[in-house]
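Contributing new records

If you add data, match the layout below exactly. Sequence lines come first and carry their own label; structure lines follow with theirs. Keep one chain per record. Anything else will be rejected by the validation script.
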Amino acid sequence: MVCMLPDGGNMNESGKLRRGHLSSTAALIITDILIINIAAFATVVLRVEFDFPLISALGFFEALRYCCIPGSIMSVLVFSAFRLYSSRWEYAGEREVFYLGFASVCASALYYTSALVMRRSLPRSFPFICTLLLFVLLSLSRYIYRRVSQGRHLHEHPVAKKRTLVIGAGTAGAMAIREFDDNPASRNTAVCLIDDDPSKQGSRIRGVKVVGGRDMIADAVKKYGVEEIIFCIPSAPISVRNEILEKCSIPGVALKTLPTLSQLANGEVTLQQVKNVSIDDLLGRTQVCTDNSAMADKVRGKTVLVTGGGGSIGSELCRQIAALKPGRLVIFDIYENNAYDIQMELRRRYPELDLVVLIGSVRDEQRVRYVFDRYRPAVVCHAAAHKHVPLMEDSPAEAIKNNVFGTYNTAKAAGDFGTSLFILISSDKAVNPTNVMGASKRLCEMVVQSMNGHSGTNYIAVRFGNVLGSNGSVIPLFKKQIAEGGPVTVTDKRVTRFFMTIPEAVSLILQAGAYAKGGEVFVLDMGQPVRIDDMARKMIRLSGFEPDVDIKIVYTGLRPGEKLYEELLLKSEGLQKTDNHLIYIGHQMMYTPEEIDEKLEKLRGVIYAEAPEVRECVLSLIQEPADKMYDEIPTGEEKETATV
């Protein structure tokens, strides 16, 4: 609904725009009429080689006089049919040029035909010469119109242009330079190009020179006064991307990158959406493409419940599950704002999806059982959990209530109401935990393993490390600290963590679900661990600053419960390969329901005690026998020899 102002402000603005469009169209029509007749006259003059007495003797002048009006009318109608008056010439491309060419052919032929109908004489070569002249003059007029429009826009909305170095002289680089030139709102002007291909070096794209390979980046920045670098090789392998972007980390020079080719092709983003280079552009490996078709068979046409569906992992689970065409998707979350955001997104992207969004807590057993009884989900993805280590150290009882008892309530309801597959989203912090959050996650794994085999539900857990871009992760914190001028805080130089992108992690979770037989703890290969200190320094450089010079790094010491490094696997859990080289299975460790009930009863006894007592209790409940040491995900040849 559009609200109209009492003084008719919106209507007046709309009227101004309409009148402006009509006046521009009228000006183009008048110009085209002049061009048509100029082209016709010039054709005749050129054909007789400027012999004006011969033109009169042959009756060509008289023919032009008789054809002037009908030829102009028919040509304008032809131009209108080819959309020459509805096209936005400020953004014209090959299609508009193609239309100009066809319109020129048709207009010249009709002009010549009108002379024949009125029994007037024109040179037989008239249609051919006139077509060429008409096309040139029409193109020139549109080009002038385009430049005038862009100039007027810049005058009314002045934009400071940044001197830009473009990395990549391929298709993406050419598209970027064209965007800079043709879009009046663009804030960039390309001054040089960099490309490692020797055959391209020294050549030009739209007048912009390819000055050399990646080793010339620093020199080019100085020589051309570059203010911004844009990386335009979206298909580059991660190793090449890393090396080039590292060379682009120059103090005082902003660094951005184009969207990926798949995003451009799918229409998810446009060239105008050049983004800042983020740390995930430099971390890990090439994005892994997984096949969720096996999981699709378990989801398609069935009801799927996602607890914590508004969170970082939960919302991505909802996106990918929605794409698998479930019969119904039920989102259950305690935080209404997140639930509302993912609800609006899914309704926009999947209008046919049967979507139910419910507010509630997994701690509320009656509410959980009502949801299961009402919707009878076939698949449950349990992502609801407290995850912040320092906060859970200060409020350990809340971690127990939400993580442990919330998982127990949800898993128990799954078995009681006929769920076929229950997936627990776990964490690498569940291995050898030294903090309450990790210990609570280990207890969650033990809960679901103890329930497996006592109903028709297959219970599994999927364990992985940190995900890039999740709420509350270290990367948003570093960005905020850098934006504020520092300092950037790192707990310890030696701290390392595993990282994976959210979409990749969720895709692997779903694929692990397809492998489920019940009782497994699936472990995702997170690649090589990343030093947090290195990450902080990279992010500072990517922001155009020098670490320890422009932005200080302060080491604050390990927080309560924090570890220097995380593990993904218990030695006693063993290791088993799956068909996906990034997914492993820890051998099932058996826990009886009676063992878990005993542990839960002890937790109930201290749930309202002081934090130190709660912390001591929960850590004692997950102690493994002394011979249970810890192992890491195998790499290289070890992967080939892991038992199947």
